[in-house]
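Dear support,

We are seeing what looks like truncated structure output for some complexes. This example has two components. We would appreciate it if you could run it in full and send us the complete token output so we can diff it against ours.
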Amino acid sequence: MKKPLLYFLVLLSSFPMLAQETGVHFCLRADYERSKMTGSDLNDFFNSYNAYYAGVIPQEFDTLSPHEFSHPAFGAGLRFLMGEGNIGFSSGLLGTYGYAKRTRNAVFQNDIETELAMRVRDLNIQFEVGMYFFQRVFIHGHITGRFRKTVADLGYYYQDGSYSLGDEYDILGVYSGLTTTVDLGGSVGLKLGPVYIPVSVSFPTQFASDDGLLTLIDYDVRQIRWTDLPRDYGQWVDDPVNMDPFNDFVRMNSLQSFRINIAVEYWF
Amino acid sequence: MRFLCLLLLPLILSSCSDPQRKFKRGMEGTWDIVEESIILINPDGTTETLSEKTDVGVLTLTEPVFDDGVFLDYTLTLNDGSFSWSLQPFKADEEAKRVFFYYFYCNDLFGCDMIATIESDKRNTQQWSFYRKTGATSGSGTAHRKTTWVLERRD
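Here is the complete output from our reference environment:
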């Protein structure tokens, strides 16, 4: 932890130099991302697991709401302003990182508990371009490269509390995958002194999408049964041979999300 | 100087190494398996201790000849066993939650690996557990045999 801290202190020490440059501003940013997932593949898994074990699973998995992976984020960037008087050109290059985790549990009659612990880590690289008015009001359009890393630990808690991610059951494992999207959107912002408060909306496009080819998968395990997390658990157990690799597993593009961000930036 | 910040940001990011490689760096060397406990977890929640041992064996983890960045080779000798493992692939998963002993039970591609859950990960001490399904001695249904190893780094 000492090394990043050292770099961060050096970073802070350079702020006064940046502030003397007109037109270019370094900024630190904190935002809250309210997102809505476009797909429901994870819920397909939960529902099919509940259905397969109906009658022996008194506590079923709850499903995820579409907004479940909303989270705060932090970042930094550069803002460039050009113009005189009440109107001018504005652009920005921003990087933000946010993290959310959610857990779902189901308990069998024999007290074995299945837990799916999910974590998403979102890295956004956003380029904005637009106009400002009266030195206070900003309107931007943006394009964002968004990289969502999802990791899901599917483990069992046995009756004595022991936790296993092992190989005694094929479904146990650590599943992961990357959702990459190019988002388009726009924002409106208000600048009050060195503080800038933008509100933005972003929509995922299918440009450079994997078209469902990538799935949530346990890369490290070698087993005869599929190592991808299934959408239909019953078929994965009873009829794995006829599973469609493009549609029957939790697809990474189902974790794309429409999102609204409200942020606070401090410009140096 | 104005872009000093931009130059530093990648350094900040790169200084945060991923758990898998960090685990690999920490594990290379020789470890004594100082304790082994095997318990049976019955379906009715009762547990039985099947065996408890000390001075169980030695695990040596070495850099493989063709290093792809995440694997080590394991050489494992158990003191009361007639079989030992020599230079087989070993690694932790991306999140460093499990360790994989490839070709542990047999030499086939599938069904031969042992996956242990990391219960404790400290610089000089590790605790790993792995499970097998087995018959119950109490209650109806499947019991689970849990084997726990405690490892200590050899100086």
